[in-house]
Automatic annotation (TrEMBL), chains A, B:
<keyword id="KW-0547">Nucleotide-binding</keyword>
<dbReference type="Pfam" id="PF13549">
    <property type="entry name" value="ATP-grasp_5"/>
</dbReference>
<dbReference type="GO" id="GO:0043758">
    <property type="term" value="F:acetate-CoA ligase (ADP-forming) activity"/>
</dbReference>
<dbReference type="InterPro" id="IPR043938">
    <property type="entry name" value="Ligase_CoA_dom"/>
</dbReference>
<dbReference type="GO" id="GO:0016740">
    <property type="term" value="F:transferase activity"/>
</dbReference>
<dbReference type="InterPro" id="IPR011761">
    <property type="entry name" value="ATP-grasp"/>
</dbReference>
<dbReference type="InterPro" id="IPR013815">
    <property type="entry name" value="ATP_grasp_subdomain_1"/>
</dbReference>
<dbReference type="InterPro" id="IPR016102">
    <property type="entry name" value="Succinyl-CoA_synth-like"/>
</dbReference>
<dbReference type="GO" id="GO:0005524">
    <property type="term" value="F:ATP binding"/>
</dbReference>
<feature type="domain" description="ATP-grasp">
    <location>
        <begin position="472"/>
        <end position="508"/>
    </location>
</feature>
<dbReference type="InterPro" id="IPR051538">
    <property type="entry name" value="Acyl-CoA_Synth/Transferase"/>
</dbReference>
<keyword id="KW-0808">Transferase</keyword>
<dbReference type="Pfam" id="PF13607">
    <property type="entry name" value="Succ_CoA_lig"/>
</dbReference>
<dbReference type="InterPro" id="IPR036291">
    <property type="entry name" value="NAD(P)-bd_dom_sf"/>
</dbReference>
<keyword id="KW-0436">Ligase</keyword>
<dbReference type="Pfam" id="PF19045">
    <property type="entry name" value="Ligase_CoA_2"/>
</dbReference>
<dbReference type="InterPro" id="IPR003781">
    <property type="entry name" value="CoA-bd"/>
</dbReference>
Amino acid sequence: MEYQALFSPRGVAVVGSASPGKLANVLIHRLIEGGCENIYAVNPKGAGVGPVPGVSSFAPLKNLVDLAVIAAPAATVKNVLTDCGKAGVKAAVIITSGFSEIGNAAAEEEVLAVARQYGIRFIGPNCAGLVSTQSKLVATLETSPPQGNIALISQSGAVGGVFMALAKEQGLGISKFVSFGNGPDLSVIELLQYLKEDKETNVIALYLETVTQGREFMRVVRDVTLKKPVIVVKSGRTDTGQRAALSHTGSMAGSDKVFDAALKQAGAIRVESLEEMLDLCNGFSYLPPLSGKKVMILTNSGGPGVMSADKADQAGLVVADPSPDLKAALQAFLPVHAGVRNPIDLTVEGTGEEYQKSLEQALKEYDAALVLYIGTPYLRAMPVAEGVAIAAAGSRKPVVSVLQVGSDLSESLHFLRNHRLPVFPSGERAVRVLAYMAEYEAYKTRQLTVPAVAGDERCLAGKPSLLEPEAMALLQKNGIPIPEYYFAKTREEALDGCHTLGYPVVMKVVSPDILHKSDCGGVVLNIDSDDKAAQAFQTIQTATAGCDFCGVIIYPMLKGGREVILGLTRDLQFGPVLAFGLGGIYTEVLQDIALRVAPVSREEAREMIASIRTYPILQGVRGQAKADLDALADAIAAFSQLPFHYEDIREADLNPVFVFPEGLAVADARIVGAKA
Amino acid sequence: MEYQALFSPRGVAVVGSASPGKLANVLIHRLIEGGCENIYAVNPKGAGVGPVPGVSSFAPLKNLVDLAVIAAPAATVKNVLTDCGKAGVKAAVIITSGFSEIGNAAAEEEVLAVARQYGIRFIGPNCAGLVSTQSKLVATLETSPPQGNIALISQSGAVGGVFMALAKEQGLGISKFVSFGNGPDLSVIELLQYLKEDKETNVIALYLETVTQGREFMRVVRDVTLKKPVIVVKSGRTDTGQRAALSHTGSMAGSDKVFDAALKQAGAIRVESLEEMLDLCNGFSYLPPLSGKKVMILTNSGGPGVMSADKADQAGLVVADPSPDLKAALQAFLPVHAGVRNPIDLTVEGTGEEYQKSLEQALKEYDAALVLYIGTPYLRAMPVAEGVAIAAAGSRKPVVSVLQVGSDLSESLHFLRNHRLPVFPSGERAVRVLAYMAEYEAYKTRQLTVPAVAGDERCLAGKPSLLEPEAMALLQKNGIPIPEYYFAKTREEALDGCHTLGYPVVMKVVSPDILHKSDCGGVVLNIDSDDKAAQAFQTIQTATAGCDFCGVIIYPMLKGGREVILGLTRDLQFGPVLAFGLGGIYTEVLQDIALRVAPVSREEAREMIASIRTYPILQGVRGQAKADLDALADAIAAFSQLPFHYEDIREADLNPVFVFPEGLAVADARIVGAKA
């Protein structure tokens, strides 16, 4: 309901000084130019603007106005909103700045309280407004784009402005634009939910600088992307502080990396620049879904064809040669000098008809086609554009075009756009779009489930961390394989333990004071006799003198497995986050880590395992046996549930875990509680 | 001399049918439009074109014409060139196709022979012609760009056409354009040598599909890049065949990777697309050299500023905050709401004067600046452009600008261009240019020398490969550290050897038939007694029965070092190529290899070592000692000389080499001769 008031209001009140050059005045002009009707200027003087009547209060507007666009001074916004509420206004766009962005959070809270009181929903404050092209509502200072099916939600008004200016330049149509500013009321999350159902919108573009309520954001994005693509630019990727956070497993979840993982898990497409975002919007806005990765490149010039093929290959598309049948079909009508491979090179003599027929044939076999036309000032592109349009119309597969150099490029460009055929500035950019489209379809068919989580147990009983035997017991209870172990408080118990487990064994100190056991002589490996066991106990006790010594934990020596690391931490925005990598140097030097927002299913755990660069090592190289990846996936999935079962776990590291050809065992565990 | 005939001819003869629509006719029109004088049409009918007189033979043109532009049928080109020669023509552009590109190499040879006979130099055949803007020579069908200081050499006429069309669009000026086509006479190498000295040219752009005479090409590029930047696009990067070649060390030199290494060694900048190439030309064409990596970003909007900072950071630039002094200087005139960090955010209220003053202050401390102006349809960019121009004029440091959204962008864009200040479509693209410019300056100051190589010895005496003791002796002779070893033909000799070296030892089969010694039981490790030595000898002899058994080689067991691999192979175009990587999984799974065209100096070897991702492992992680990188660099440099000293070495692998905290030792060597 409130969305109709926001995007298709019966009447719009613009609040603020209506003098020429003032914000409210400009906004009114923009609304008029956009074709909006039933506009009212609200200001103390009751001054109108051109055909727009002015009033000095909301009283006369009762039930005439659904939306207030507020450009009044910050100090007055609260009272304006009260008046709005009394007059039955249901939605507001608060352009005015001077709230939480300059530290004035209290004023923003007050505005929110008034809005809640009267049931008003609003965007802003400190925003650049909104656009709803279908209802001819241009309530922004930014460029007004043509109508279309791309929605843009932007945390930065300026970025929104640049996006829309570029969209207009490129002939891309917008359904809705929302600059949400500080966003204490209508958030990205709610706007995404609305846009999911919005019939005017087929593609959603999102510019973000910060994310709040990460898990809810993720849930909604996951929901939306099953229906419509969501393309995201988030800035602040390389904040020095974030990189500094990557120092050890638990905190490898530097928050931009977490955001990146969350977006991928939720099926959104993160890109690096507005240019890429617009290219993708162009593709998704016009093209049918891409059902596979096989792309035919059709060109009239070798060089640009090869450059596009290179890029397509790098981007994961398949530039396979035509089948013998297709080759024969092409050779039946193409001249001998044409190259019938992939790219098909029609040479500079390629005609519109040859483009058309080749494309018709190719689209029977390929999932998509890239058409390159490189002219000279003396060649005409229109016959080619016409041929492409005919061929594309007879197929339900994506066709992207590139037109470079020629006397009639602009005419051909518009002709193709009018036939809903996107044109890109270069073959490299066109194939990048196809590659993302193929990935999006693959994501949609993958259908990974998010495991249910439940439980509000606690496991630390207020202690800063679990002792190793406690941690091992907890893991075992939660289905994560651990080795046999023996907890011994005295030398005699230790010897008993060694006998129970059988030599050789490893012995480690158990103390709440000691986090890095190896560093202080608290670990003895390869103990193979009673003498050595007794000596080890003595060594450990001596080495850790001064600490609260609880005893030792004894394991059989583990051998022949691959070492991996599992980590869990709690991200401020996304909650529990899971890290996985190979042990030792691979994690430390190569930073070859897979991150996911927890929990993950067994299937997602398998994807995680396969996503690291060093995956072949787990699969077995140089004659080594393959690690038990099913057992590993099960352990990862089970481990990812821990912070949900036990709300007092802040961080957990299993480092290392030995993965054997059959089964696995956790060789060390650190489980740390929430800070008091 | 011939270059003056090519680029500034006294007269130009265009050869071929002059009928309307024919190639020669169009070429004549283009020459006239370009402002060229003294044009003659040469065709059997002696037909002129407009003001251009026609002649039916070259006889009347004797000593009037330096350059012939030939668009006559392929079969006639040889005779045309003969006539040219007799009339004193010194240079030719052969547009005509139908030569080696369609398999007709013989005709091309004939044309070359005639040209040599008469001392004519030519570009083409099968080319798109040339442009020399200074002498108003437009002998091409492609777009004619404005005059400027960028030279373009392109193997593809169409790519050249696209480049020039885009250059014109972006207001970039060209000095020379050469499409060299099949290029049997004037090659890229000679053209580069000419452009190095060409006063009209400050930047060289190069589009290549294939490279011949790789080492000579590299030598010339190295020479040119010390004076002018060379920016290269080479297509065919991901040819499936090339990837297939990456299966083992020796052939890791898939030729595109070699090309990539060669370009880097020679100081050229390889980019992936024409877009990037044009961006770089824009930067290098207008900007003073970038002396460091510290960049200030000056913006009136947060989002685009952060996006540019992200990209700058990723590209290796330094986006450091201002010093306290600079902060104070900025705060002295900026309003309180402006953000005085990096980026400096003047906010939407930023004035031209604030841009100017901030830039003036920032350029005192930073090596370069990026100016972002994000307007709305109601803001004017001109005051900002004027402020930027004033500040930039007072500094010798590079200033790049981005103008987005606004009522007068085009005016401001032209204003900045007229002040030789490049403008880019986005901050991301602008900082990418700055990053490349910084790298280029760093390359120029690095001044690595190429070691002299000499020698025409042979070491294989016609054998397919050296036996291991022979290979070890050769390495030792060439200054590459090897372990002590003992070559034993009998069990008795083997026992003597063990005693000489001292246990424990390793014993390996020596046989010309066995390349992979471990795979067939030909290696026994950890031999620590006479019994085991005797048994090992027996085992090896039995395991390798049927092979030509020459004996065994015995080494002390090597321990405690890091394993690295060195490989040498001969690339078809670039000759000896050197590969370096960490042993085992790192090379095999991670393909973490450094490649260089050999030979390399000690300093370049150090760069090679530091360039692999796993370099930290050699530096010592987790408390392990640092490997002796000086010794390794010396060994790499010495190894890289081998194929020059011994012309019959085709491939060599040292795998592994143990690098110790002090010194190193080659633990296995394979040296293979040229195929008979």
